Structures are given as C-alpha cells and as structure tokens.
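Onboarding guide, step 5: your first structure request.
Type a short instruction followed by the sequence, for example:

Predict the 3D structure of this protein.
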Amino acid sequence: MDHHKIELYSVDIMIMLIDDQAIVGKLIQNMLTDQSDISFHYCHNPLLAIQETRSIQPTVILLDLIMPELSGMQLLKKIRETPSTQDIPVIMLSIEDDPATKVQAFEYGANDYLVKLPDKIELIARLRYHSKAYIHKLQRDRIFEALQKTQAELEKQNIELLHLSQLDSMTEIANRRYFDQCILIELKRALRNRRAMSVIMLDIDHFKTYNDTYGHLQGDDCIQRIVAITKQQKHRPADLLARYGGEEFVLLLPETELAGAVKIAEAIRAAIEAEQIPHRGSLTADYVTVSLGVTGGLPCADDTPEKWLQHADEMLYKAKQSGRNQVQFIALPSDDETE
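The system replies with structure tokens like these:
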C-alpha cells in the first residue's frame, strides 16, 4: 500500500441535468443554489449528453424522459452501454407518474424516478444519497485497483526473492540448497518411473594455487568462465548445474544413462581444456583444467541423494588421485543387480 498513494475522489457532488426545457434547468439550479457542496451542470441537447458527461464526470445524472430527437429511455440505454458512464446513477424525471413507465425506466437501468418538478428537500436528499453511494463505489474501486496492483508487485517480488534464494550470487546458477531439493525430487521421480539418472561432480584443479597466483578477483572470473563453458555442454532444460562449493560444481542429469553422462563430462573437460585459461601455478598443465566424477544408473528403493553424491565425490577423488584433468565414473547397482 505504501508504494501507491491512493487518491480518493472528492466528496463534492456534481449534478448533471439533461433536459431540453431551459426553464426546468433554471428551476432545479435554483433549488441547489444554497447547497455549497453541490455543483450543477445543465445540458439542453441530449445528442451531446454522452460527450458532456465524460467531460463533467457527474455523480448523478437527472434525465428527462421526454425529449425531441432522442428520448430519455434511448439516452439511458446509451449511458448504460458506454463504459465511461455506465455506472453513474441516473434519476429519471418525468411529468408522468405511470407505473408501467417507471418499470421500463428501471429495466433500462435507472436508479431512481421522480415526477417533476420534485420537492426541493426530497430532490436534495435523493441527489445526496445516490451521489455518496457512487463516490463510495469509486473509492472502493480505486482502493481495490491499488490493492490488486500492490498484490501483483508483491507476488512479483516474492517470485524474484524465491529465484534469488535458489541462485548462487556470483555465478547465477543454482546454489547447493536448491540442488539438494532438486536431486531428492528427481531421485523419487526416477525410482517411480524406473528411469536412469546421473550425477557429475566437477572440481577446478589446483584452484587455491590459481587464487594465490592471480588474486581472488581473477579467480572469480575464472569460475564464471568455467560455469559458462559447462552450461554450453548441458543441452536439456531439465539438466541442473549448481555450485556445490567454492570451486566445486555438480550437474544433475535426469533420465540420463551413465554412458551419456560420461560423454557429457568428457565434453565439459575437453571444452575447458581447449579454452586454455592460463594457470602457471598448476601442477597438471599450463592452463586451467578440471577433474570430474560421474555416477549413474537406475535408483534403488533405499537410495538417498547423499549416497549418489558420495559415489560421484569418490569418483572425483579418484580422478584427482589419478593425475587430474580426467573423468572417472561408476555405475550404481540397481535393485535387480542387488537381489
């Protein structure tokens, strides 16, 4: 609410009389002269009434029933069909006190019916009643519109906050917390559908030495380049890349056999090697390299995300112990194989 100042309509009453007889206009104007909060506008030509109504924005329309060129009933129908005027209260004025005419007027959308010339006290009472009801409606509509706008902005902000809570701020990929939620969901889905799943863990080789050599700012730039290269190798929207630690990343591959995951891991390793980001402090090469551990297969009923990540991490450790800049992998046994 504090983002939007709600401007309420003035409580001043604006009466618009549509009547072809100027004498009627003068008489009604005289009735209202001593009412300081009531303004009066007279329209003698019914053909101009809609246009003048848009301009004047009355809180009540006094509409004569019998007029040349356009009858009060016809004009009332037009008022109710025009979006800018359709909600304005209309009081029909007529010399006729015929019940059938009154019924027809209400059927066309009149809010009230007075036999002219009405008593001054009664006229003012009805004008105030209908005007205040209309003003309150406008205020409610304005407040409701502002509330809807505020609610829409809050929902947008909540979505943005949720999105930010799922991202690593530096790399703008998923963070560990979000990854932990997703792997649990995908594990259950894979088990239910009897589909394979794979996990790749990636670590930048000798990254501490890289930071010591080039500084943390360039280290951050290196991480962002590694992320960009890795993202190019994942082609499906369902594949999820997350930052799992400082220089450690994990790639979740739903519905992916181990062989396919190994192929993706090798493509990532080769693409990063081909980038040849200088790393004079590396004991593996003159440029930045990565080690990757992969696990995959059909989940078992007692599998947990921790089990899958542990196997991928063990393969990552094996890749490092075997000389780095390589992919190591292991297939998890399925229920059929463990029986």
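Each response can be followed by summary notes, for example: The chain has a mean pLDDT of 88.
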